[in-house]
């Protein structure tokens, strides 16, 4: 575990971790719509046992959690308290890390808020 | 007149105008506000005066959301007032971040989730079985074709939907020409009527009475003049009404002078009257015309004069109407046809 944390800490500053949570959220949103539309159009009724949908939602939450975990490790790099506004590598890393953390929380909430109506729906009408 | 005088006079005029403006303003406020409040007294076409289960739960949800919105707005205002008045440096950085986390993140998330969970059960459509009564409604420019219990022994009518109280009713909605939307505010939410597609609205009325529905999707020039009457009846009365309506019209007499004129002017080319040769389904079915409470899809009171005027100049009441004008028809003929139609009960 410690080696993993060390490895994450050595990662270079990147926008990739930042855009993972909202991208996964958008993908899950599309998946939810396709799930309902395809079931209604092809099967003619709403899926009664949505294993695939639950798996997709769990996968989305795991990906968001992973991005959030990497961001948390990076945000905990020792340094001044926020705002991280200096044009140094350290501040850039910590700024991106905090932004990624917040986006991960928002995206996780978004995924749950999108999945709840799908769980409530029972009918294609 | 010297300059001082002129200025004084202009000043006087301005003051007078201001007073007049104030009086007009007061009058407008004095008349508009009560009018807005009086709109709440509308019992026959209001989502706030429900006569069906779905509209009742929608009203409850509206009240819950409204109260929540007011509470949130008031607490935010108080919080902002407190923040502005509190001297700086009262909170440490950590305390400030904690406040943002709880008051700005956790609390709104939980509250929004609670409101979402409260509203979701309403998205579940009411259960319906094949034994339940079906009513097929098609939107046309600018009227409603209503077929109660489609199939053998179906009852074709127009601009009036009758429902039994306490029974589940499935309303199959379709657009005959363009997209319309079917809304009985006191009964249930609105649903679109799309050509080539059937949307089913499941409703249950729980209070007998006369109500009103409207079209809520812009469908042409007379979109705002496309309404219909809704009659919620006790189940026994509804069954009696269905049995009584299926046959030929009670007073449809070929001997009536209007009946001959109806045939001579070719009204049967578009309209149907059960028990006569007129059987076309292009325009509204007129078999029980005399029983309807309103004329021209919920727009005019049902009188002979209104009917006669509508026959000769339908476009005067409904711009863009598909029925051609019969302005060459003598008024006496129009009145005779109107009298005949009103006798169809």
UniProtKB/TrEMBL annotation, chain A:
<keyword id="KW-1133">Transmembrane helix</keyword>
<protein>
    <submittedName>
        <fullName>Uncharacterized protein</fullName>
    </submittedName>
</protein>
<feature type="transmembrane region" description="Helical">
    <location>
        <begin position="50"/>
        <end position="73"/>
    </location>
</feature>
<feature type="transmembrane region" description="Helical">
    <location>
        <begin position="93"/>
        <end position="120"/>
    </location>
</feature>
<keyword id="KW-0472">Membrane</keyword>
<keyword id="KW-0812">Transmembrane</keyword>
TrEMBL record, chain B:
<dbReference type="Pfam" id="PF00034">
    <property type="entry name" value="Cytochrom_C"/>
</dbReference>
<comment type="similarity">
    <text>Belongs to the cytochrome c oxidase subunit 2 family.</text>
</comment>
<keyword id="KW-0186">Copper</keyword>
<dbReference type="InterPro" id="IPR009056">
    <property type="entry name" value="Cyt_c-like_dom"/>
</dbReference>
<keyword id="KW-0408">Iron</keyword>
<keyword id="KW-1133">Transmembrane helix</keyword>
<dbReference type="GO" id="GO:0005507">
    <property type="term" value="F:copper ion binding"/>
</dbReference>
<dbReference type="InterPro" id="IPR001505">
    <property type="entry name" value="Copper_CuA"/>
</dbReference>
<dbReference type="GO" id="GO:0020037">
    <property type="term" value="F:heme binding"/>
</dbReference>
<dbReference type="InterPro" id="IPR002429">
    <property type="entry name" value="CcO_II-like_C"/>
</dbReference>
<feature type="domain" description="Cytochrome oxidase subunit II copper A binding">
    <location>
        <begin position="130"/>
        <end position="244"/>
    </location>
</feature>
<dbReference type="InterPro" id="IPR008972">
    <property type="entry name" value="Cupredoxin"/>
</dbReference>
<feature type="transmembrane region" description="Helical">
    <location>
        <begin position="60"/>
        <end position="79"/>
    </location>
</feature>
<dbReference type="Pfam" id="PF00116">
    <property type="entry name" value="COX2"/>
</dbReference>
<keyword id="KW-0249">Electron transport</keyword>
<keyword id="KW-0813">Transport</keyword>
<dbReference type="InterPro" id="IPR045187">
    <property type="entry name" value="CcO_II"/>
</dbReference>
<dbReference type="GO" id="GO:0004129">
    <property type="term" value="F:cytochrome-c oxidase activity"/>
</dbReference>
<keyword id="KW-0349">Heme</keyword>
<keyword id="KW-0479">Metal-binding</keyword>
<feature type="domain" description="Cytochrome c">
    <location>
        <begin position="253"/>
        <end position="345"/>
    </location>
</feature>
<protein>
    <submittedName>
        <fullName>Cytochrome c oxidase subunit 2</fullName>
    </submittedName>
</protein>
């Amino acid at each position: 575990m410690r080696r993993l944390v060390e490895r994450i800490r050595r990662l270079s500053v990147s926008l990739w971790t930042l855009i993972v949570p909202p991208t996964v959220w958008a993908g899950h949103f599309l998946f939810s719509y396709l799930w309902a539309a395809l079931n209604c159009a092809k099967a003619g009724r709403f899926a009664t046992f949505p294993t695939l949908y639950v798996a997709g939602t769990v996968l989305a939450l795991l990906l968001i959690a992973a991005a959030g975990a990497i961001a948390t490790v990076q945000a905990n790099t020792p340094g001044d308290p926020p705002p991280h506004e200096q044009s140094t590598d350290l501040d850039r890393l910590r700024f991106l890390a905090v932004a990624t953390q917040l986006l991960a929380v928002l995206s996780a909430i978004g995924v749950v808020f999108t999945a709840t109506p799908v769980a409530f729906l029972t009918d294609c009408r | 007149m010297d300059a001082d005088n002129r200025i004084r006079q202009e000043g006087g005029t301005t003051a007078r105008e201001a007073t007049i403006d104030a009086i007009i303003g007061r009058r407008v406020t004095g008349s508009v506000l009560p009018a807005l409040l009086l709109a709440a007294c509308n019992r026959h076409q209001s989502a706030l005066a429900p006569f069906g289960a779905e509209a009742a739960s929608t009203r409850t949800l509206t009240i819950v959301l409204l109260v929540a919105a007011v509470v949130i707005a008031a607490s935010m205002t108080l919080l902002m007032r407190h923040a502005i008045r509190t001297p700086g440096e009262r909170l440490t950085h950590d305390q400030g971040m904690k406040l943002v986390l709880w008051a700005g993140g956790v609390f709104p998330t939980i509250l929004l989730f609670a409101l979402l969970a409260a509203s979701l059960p309403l998205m579940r459509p009411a259960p319906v079985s094949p034994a339940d009564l079906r009513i097929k409604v098609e939107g046309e420019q600018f009227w409603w074709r209503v077929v109660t219990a489609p199939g053998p022994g179906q009852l074709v009518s127009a601009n009036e939907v009758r429902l039994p109280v306490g029974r589940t009713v499935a309303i199959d909605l379709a657009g005959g020409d363009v997209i319309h939307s079917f809304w009985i505010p006191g009964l249930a939410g609105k649903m679109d009527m799309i050509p080539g597609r059937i949307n089913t609205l499941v409703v249950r009325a729980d209070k007998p009475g006369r109500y009103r529905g409207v079209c809520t999707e812009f469908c042409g020039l007379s979109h705002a003049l496309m309404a219909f009457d809704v009659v919620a009846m006790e189940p026994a009365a509804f069954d009696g009404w269905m049995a009584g309506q299926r046959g030929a019209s009670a007073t449809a007499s070929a001997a009536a002078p209007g009946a001959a004129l109806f045939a001579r002017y070719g009204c049967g080319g578009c309209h149907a009257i059960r028990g006569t040769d007129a059987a076309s389904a292009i325009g509204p079915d007129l078999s029980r015309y005399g029983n309807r409470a309103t004329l021209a899809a919920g727009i005019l009171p049902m009188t002979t004069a209104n009917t006669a005027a509508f026959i000769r100049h339908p476009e005067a009441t409904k711009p863009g109407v598909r029925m051609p004008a019969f302005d060459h028809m003598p008024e006496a003929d129009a009145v005779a046809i109107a009298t005949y139609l009103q006798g169809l009960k």
